[in-house]
């Protein structure tokens, strides 16, 4: 995507959505999943991802599990019950926002 600023406001929702579809994920796995699903259009940097993950954890939306993998510690993130509820809310907000933008961009297609 030419303008990465467009997705930065949606990063939290992207993270929550992915975690709602997977039991648990680690940071690099999240970045790669987004890259694969969007065929490279969205590429989340570690500098954007980890502050968002830490914020979501601090808000009680994520739990963290630490596991030893190949002689190193890996943090796995998963949704809490509160995180699951917030995911539904965030997705609804994003869908409404996209619909509003669509009305502005192409009013002929609006219903």
UniProtKB/TrEMBL annotation:
- Residues in Transcription regulator PadR N-terminal domain copies: 15-86
- What domain of life? Bacteria
Task: Cite the Pfam families for this sequence.
Answer: PadR
Q: What is the protein name for this chain?
A: PadR family transcriptional regulator
